[in-house]
Amino acid sequence: MSELPIKDRMKIPRHHMIEQDAKQRTANFKEVNLGYTKEMALAEAMRCIQCKNPPCVAGCPVFVKIPEFIRKLETGDLAEAATILKMDNTLPAVCGRVCPQEEQCERVCTLGKKGEAVAVGYLERFVADWLRDYGKETAPAPVKSGKKVAIVGSGPAGLSCAGDLLRMGHAVTVFEALHEIGGVLMYGIPEFRLPKAIVQAEVEALRKAGVEFVTDYVIGLTETVDELLQKFAAVFVGVGAGLPYFLNIPGEQLVGVYSANEFLTRVNLMKAYEFPKCDTPVFEVKGKQVAVFGGGNTAMDAVRTSCRLGAARAMIIYRRTEKELPARIEEVKHAKEEGIEFIFLAAPVEFTGHDNGWLKSVTVQKMELGEPDASGRRKPVPIPGALETIPLDAAIIAIGNGSNPIISKTTPDLKVNKWGNILVDEKSMKSSKKGVFAGGDIVTGGATVILAMGAGRKAAQAIDEYLKKPEIWS
Amino acid sequence: MNKIIEARNLAPDVKLFKIAAPQIANKRQAGQFVILRVHKEGERIPLTIADSNVQDGSITIIVQGIGKTTKYMNTLQAGDSIMDVVGPLGKPSHIACFGTVVVIGGGVGTAIAFPTAKALKQAGNHVVSIIGGRTKQLVILEEELRAVSDEVYPTTDDGSYGYQGMVTHKLQDLIKAGRKLDFVLAIGPIPMMAAVSEVTKQHHIKTTVSLNPIMVDGTGMCGGCRAVVDGKTVFVCVDGPEFDAHQVDYASLAKRNRSYLLQEKTAVEEFCKLDAMIKEKEYVRTAH
Ligand SMILES: Cc1cc2nc3c(=O)[nH]c(=O)nc-3n(C[C@H](O)[C@H](O)[C@H](O)COP(=O)(O)OP(=O)(O)OC[C@H]3O[C@@H](n4cnc5c(N)ncnc54)[C@H](O)[C@@H]3O)c2cc1C
Ligand code: SF4
Ligand code: FES
After folding, report:
1. Sheet holding A346-353, edge to edge
2. Which of A123, A250, A420, A449 has the fewest beta carbons closer than 10 A?
3. Domains, chain A, ordered by start
């Protein structure tokens, strides 16, 4: 193959994702992004100019060797591209779909300075999907060390920690409170953004490789961390940030007011959209007015879910402006295409209800941007007297999660900060308790899949060292 | 998968199950519950652990067939399995030696009150149990409660058995008779718990109720089980299920428990149609 000059590479425009049509997709729960064709992927790979000191790699929280895998893809060596990708990212099919690339690799891509960044995320997704569909199964884990490790929680932190420890030759058991493995990937992020089959394929691969999964097992209640330590040489705690915040305004007890966690769990994990075939109901939103409070990925997932359940009016109500929305850009774009209404600079102050206890409306305080605060962002301040009442049938609160106290309350010598996040040494993910490591949202507070995955891998490394020299713990 | 070791009817539509769940049996304390899911399409429902047996590794639950899942459960037999059982969830009951305690159970609430009554007895209390039902057949676990109580008063609304009247009337009688009551535990339908709470508040008797909101995960992750206690939001699955009766906002809890009334009706109708179909098939099969 003749080498394409940089000049010509830079002339190729970024390839757009093939998507399900907006009208059509709001009537189903199927994935919105359909993926690149092979031709598109190879052509997009040609855009990468193979920078010497690739800024994209520095921008990636786990330092995926981006130009290397793209290069292999360009030459058509998909198997090798996948191998390189997998070295640093254990869940590329997931990350290719849900990472905020515009904040990470693609934000700093050299091409982005003048034009559009290389579509690193779409390429990652393409290679990972190829691997799942056509790749060879990875060889089973090497010789056993005879050491057993317990992983608590089966989100991306727990899964990646489990995968690495297994490869290092240790026996791994994952304990999960819910009846499905996958954490937020299963119960939070909807099918239309991350098909459950993709998560399950990752889990199955781990199961085949030898990871033991125990569902319906709440550590702290079914068995404590101390009891685990009697049977396992080390414990990794990756229980996520699962304690939904409410707004603490009057009327939050009304029927029709949900936390995003509850709404999404009912719909995703319990398949309420298939009611009555599946037994779990969700509030009937067909033809109704639904508002979601918040501006992150969770808020976008909730509002787009209610749109798919047939809401007549589905809106995001956010106290700042569009610029500050923490959600991935692609989610905001998709939401807009799907007819989601955005109400900015408005903060809820009260819900009112009908006599039967069902939600009737929300009153919001209109805000304006005031003086910049310490971070340089202009803070929203209330406009005196500017209140507006919006009729509502369902309200979904998506303003973040605190940390679930079950583990910390039942493990008194495990140190946590005032928000309940487990305190760890940043390099080794060691906690204050000998033999116990922690990572993911339970340490950082609600963050991202890639950061949780990275933390799980760091911990696996440290656990491996600890298992070899258990006498060293400081 | 958790195997059903034993299943028997206690009253019409009320069935007792012994389920294999050794780890839960090891751990559970009075007042705690499990969440179970009967099959792949099933919902997650909370049920109080009525009893446990560490030797045979079983827990006992008592189910009243009201919704689709509980009606389905009541068709299960020994040898069948339940897909998921997780627990023990919630905080254990606060057990202490109060003196004379009254344990009040309304309907299937009696099953929830039973383990705590047993623990209160073991802690040295004089236990008075008042167990109510609309009619004779709906008064359950009388024998079991007699074994752990010093006095048992069954009550029925229609007077078909025991004392005629509500559990609150019997409680008021005890108070009027000058009995010194140190603690009351009331478990049953929300109006019953609210009524008991009214009575004991007037007489300044410390009272605990066990709340039964709709739940999903049972671990504090969804907030669906929230209730208002002492003006503050609590998550019943992790902060409860037992709370100070005099601080609970019963009205909002009652309304929240009716959230899915319409859907529940659809689900039960679907189930009954299906159940009738199965029964008809069985009938045809056995007839041949
Ligand atoms: C709706 C939604 C959308 C999101 N979208 C994105 C996105 O687009 N991109 C992105 O990067 N991030 C996104 N996030 C954030 C991301 O999902 C999380 O940061 C990530 O999943 C954290 O991983 P984790 O392994 O720490 O925990 P989790 O994924 O939360 O997994 C923790 C697991 O532990 C289990 N558990 C909890 N307590 C116990 C216990 N005591 N015993 C046993 N098991 C227990 C839980 O049931 C859960 O399964 C989103 C989050 C939500 C809620
Ligand atoms: S910064 Fe962009 S162009 Fe440079 S190596 Fe990374 S992906 Fe390729
Ligand atoms: S049932 Fe979900 S928080 Fe209690």
Report:
1. A346-353, A359-372, A378-391
2. A250
3. 6-133 (1.10.1060.10), 148-242+401-472 (3.50.50.60), 246-397 (3.50.50.60)
